[in-house]
Request: fold
Amino acid sequence: MNTRQSTAKALVVAIIAAAASTSHAATINKTLCVSVANKTMSDGQSITFWGFTETCATANVGQVPGPPVEIGIGDTLNLTLSIPMGMPMTTPFEMMTNYPGHTIHLHGADVPQGEDGVPEFGARTDGDTYTWTPTTVMGGSYMYHCHQHTVKHLEMGMYGPMIVRPRNAAGTGFLNQLTPSATTAYNVEQTYLFSSVDPNYHASTAVGDSTVFADYNPVYFLINGNEGKGIATPATTLTTSPNQKVALRLIGLHSVSGTFSIRDSAGNKKPFTVYVQDGRQYPTPETVETLDVGPGQRFDVIFSTPGTTGAWYPQMEFKRLRDGSVYATAYGRVGF
Ligand SMILES: [Cu+2]
Reply:
């Protein structure tokens, strides 16, 4: 290494060290409750969900997905699940005779077992506080979900996005970057949380170790809780301008396979670059036209809008686990 390389390396180390500083770290306290949410689907069928909500004193206000949990690198998150005292409780707090209550599992977070929200490993199911402090290398997208009888409760809608963001040098706000690396800078961002729904799993008879759980036959495929069955009826929309960098946070909470792409109105694929997978930055970003997103996975990607006005359609082909055939495609829209 020559002197110039050495100086350059020292500068990079200094910049990384500055970005990694946690001297301005904050403590984020957030409380979630569980509430029923009834959604009318595109075919007119009403489906009962259980959703997390910050509106704890009101009935039937569950959100699917739950409210986003945002935390800065170096911050300490105290995420509290508040469940009314006096178990056993009424629906949705005690629908499962053998599996009462709920937890919050911070999926992908490196936490001690006591913060992990897994009842099989001793987690409380009558409310608890879950604490996590993400380090410098953990910028990116995560998810939280209930881990009580996961097959049932995940399907019922008990999930939401969790985003770990780099703070600015003063600690007063977040940078528009996926990670502390300036190479991940973007102008605008949006979360694409994928999920699937099998109505049979939502039936009141689907309790305990019911045989209904032996097979999974999803009927509805959601982005951010909406079906978005065509480009004219997108599940989620973002409006920006030409020549902008758009970050999409892809979060897989579906229980099937899926392939993500971004296409124009004629169906032509547009390239996008994957910077972060499962909360860790790639050493070398990868530019692709399709990306398989499986259950539990997260990808943070960036694409550039073209120089002229128009719209592109980020979309997810939901596929059968057995043979990869497509169930349905859910569409979003980015206008520019
Ligand atoms: Cu639950």
The longest strand covers residues 27-40.
